Amino acid sequence: MSNTRQSWYEAGARERIAALVDPASFAEFIGPERREISPHLSIFDLPTQFDDGIVVGCGAIGGTPVFVAAQEGRFMGGAVGEVHGAKLTGLLRAAKAVARDVVIAFDTGGVRLQEANAGEIAIAEIMRGVVEARMAGVRVVGLIGGRAGCYGGGGLIAGCCSTLIVSEQGRISVTGPEVIETNKGVEEFDSRDRSFVWRTMGGKHRTLIGGADVFVEDDTMAFRDATRAALARAPKLDGNTLAAEQARLERRITRFGEASDATDIWQLLGIDDPWAIPDMPATGFATLADTYRERADDAR
Amino acid sequence: MTPAEILDSLFPAGHAVTAEIDLLFGRGMLESGTVHVIGATGRAPIGIDQAIRLSAAVLEITSIDDAAPILFLVDTASQRMSRRDELLGLSEYLAHLAKSLLLAEARGHRTIGLLYGGSAAGAFIATALACGTLVALPGAHPEVMDLPSMARVTKLPIPVLEEKAKATPVFAPGLDNLVRVGGIAEVWDAGRSLSEQLTALLATPRAGDDRATFGSAQHGRTKAAAVASEILAVAGR
């Protein structure tokens, strides 16, 4: 075991998988040697990648077989195109078929613009795949802490997972900061105000409101340990789960619906000094969050 | 067609559907039985307040074991783009709506999306595309990304994009393109009774998510079905 900390944020998709699974346990499906590239990017004279920006396969975590998928945020911002999406859809259908848990390392800006229609339907197919697998008793654990964050359709897929593990860098949202600003103006959303973006969409805020379940340091080993723990939780998605989620999300609007900034919400949660949150180190934050935060638990 | 005209044509035997601003809730009667109706209309964006109201209705229907289908009328903008919606976690609200529709389907309620106007991006995914079967009326105009935005990002002039769009349905907005990639199962004939068309659809059993196969048959998505099937075959061993 190496003592050197490896940043999840800086790591690529394959490095993240290597850190997550037991040594030499990973086998990729439709790997880069197959050169299963996007058939659409050439229309725009754009470069392709042999794995279309996602690695899928099987491995073991702590000896337990799992399916693993990792998006590559450095290729087209991890955006979901036809082939990329189909690889994840196939993996989720297999998970349901053989009752095996799935770990998804998200790193995506959402639907790939150049193949928008194919990507949009792929997101819908993936969400259906996640939900049908979960209803059959499979756990689908999402990990978010990469460069591209988890935006657009990626945010919707994440919202279907059983457990979400995030680091501070793990931004989750539907519309990206630049798109809100372009459409609604800088008064509504200043995409260049980084601290505003991070406290509105970042991992700390999502953890505090119950949008994410486990907060970890930006460290591949921390992600792995949290994944192991998440895979030990009882799997469940049924009418009771969604009734509980309905109540949880209604309560959030009642409780925080008038807040205009994340710090207002943190204050309402009972945190004395909300402005200290952004600079708080991960372990200190996780302890504080445990005391004050909203939880999803069996309501996701 | 307006929602009122659509409902009259769908349910000549009668319907009780009420509007709450841009949302619809109620039921209609077919000869074959009751159909639950929900709707997101008026080309309005879907934010957390709309999504939570729609999911509440879907979950309420799901708790009734009547196995009656759910018809979802859709004419929306995109997801609501605002600081408040994102601050409160819009992704969770949209995902929850989609999950509710998928649960309803698993509990035996056929879910039929009827796209009669616009819909875009996250709102499209959480409403129309989360239904088991999606049909459209002529004139519906789904769009994932509008061409001016695409032009900005791809740095290609709109006429160039329009020219490229003639060769592939994969990126440009519009009903025909969404049909060709497999997203829409049927485009109904607005000149015929919608009631008959819905009845015929409900009489045909649905077999799983066949959108990729459909898209492949129309050469709109040539790889998705094969790639997903291969992974299922290899991984499922």
UniProtKB/TrEMBL annotation, chain A:
UniProt entry keywords in alphabetical sequence: Transferase
Presence of the UniProt keyword Transferase in the record: yes
Organismal lineage: Bacteria, Pseudomonadati, Pseudomonadota, Alphaproteobacteria, Sphingomonadales
Organism: Sphingomonas populi
Domain CoA carboxyltransferase N-terminal: from-to ranges: 1-239
PROSITE patterns listed in its UniProt record: COA_CT_NTER (PS50980)
A molecular function GO annotation: transferase activity
Protein known as: Biotin-independent malonate decarboxylase subunit beta
SUPFAM superfamilies: ClpP/crotonase
One BP annotation, GO: carbohydrate metabolic process
Transferase recorded as keyword: yes
GO cellular component: acetyl-CoA carboxylase complex
UniProtKB/TrEMBL annotation, chain B:
Gene3D superfamilies: 2-enoyl-CoA Hydratase, Chain A, domain 1
Pfam families: MdcE (PF06833)
Domain of life, per lineage: Bacteria
Name by which UniProt lists this protein: Biotin-independent malonate decarboxylase subunit gamma
Source organism of the structure: Sphingomonas populi
